[in-house]
Amino acid sequence: MSVRAIQTEIEARLEQAEPEVEVLLAEVVGGATLRLFIDHPEGVTLALCERVTLCLTDYRDRYSLEVSSPGEDRPLTRPAHFRQFLGRRARVRLRDAIEGHRSVTGELVGASDRDVAIAAEGGVVTVPYEQIYRSNLVPGE
């Protein structure tokens, strides 16, 4: 099962049990660990992480399960995330190089439903979402 399929399945399951929980990112690390970054309008607590873990007990048969808050280097995975953090610095790693670069770091200056605009050192770079491999906020800036 692909990571995207796993995330979709987890989101559907949590929609029933914990409807306010947003799964920001699900990733399989080292083939044996399923790591989930979740968010909640009232914040992520240990109790919430435990409830989410209990909703996903069958995944623990296949993976070591980690459920946590996004932290300062919060993953950005949807257009709404990029819009929410306009004005903040982010690092965007690309599937294919753009102008010889595999990643772009800079201020988020625009986000449509198709792409994100980043004010980087060399100017504004527009990246279509389908070209983004992974992206996150840059902490402390």
Provide an overview of this structure.
With about 140 residues, the protein is an alpha+beta fold. It has helices at about 5-15, 45-55, 80-85; strands at about 20-30, 35-40, 65-70, 90-100, 100-110, 115-120, 125-130, 130-135. It folds into two domains: about 5-70, GMP Synthetase, Chain A, domain 3; about 80-135, Roll (SH3 type barrels), CATH 2.30.30.100. The model has no long low-confidence stretch (mean pLDDT about 95). The longest helix is centred in the N-terminal third of the chain and has 15 residues, at about 5-15. The chain is globular. The chain is built from three helices and eight strands. The termini are far apart. Helix content is about 20%, strand content about 40%. The strands form two sheets. It has a five-stranded antiparallel sheet. A three-stranded mixed sheet has the order 1-2-3, with helices on one face.
Question: In brief, what are we looking at here?
Answer:
With 141 residues, the chain is an alpha+beta fold. The protein folds into two domains: 3-68, 2-Layer Sandwich (GMP Synthetase, Chain A, domain 3), CATH 3.30.300.70; 79-137, Roll (SH3 type barrels).
Question: How are the secondary structure elements laid out?
Answer:
Blueprint: H1 3-17, E1 22-29, E2 33-39, H2 46-55, E3 64-68, H3 79-84, E4 89-98, E5 101-111, E6 115-120, E7 123-128, E8 132-137
Parallel strand pairs: 2-3
Antiparallel strand pairs: 1-2, 4-5, 4-8, 5-6, 6-7
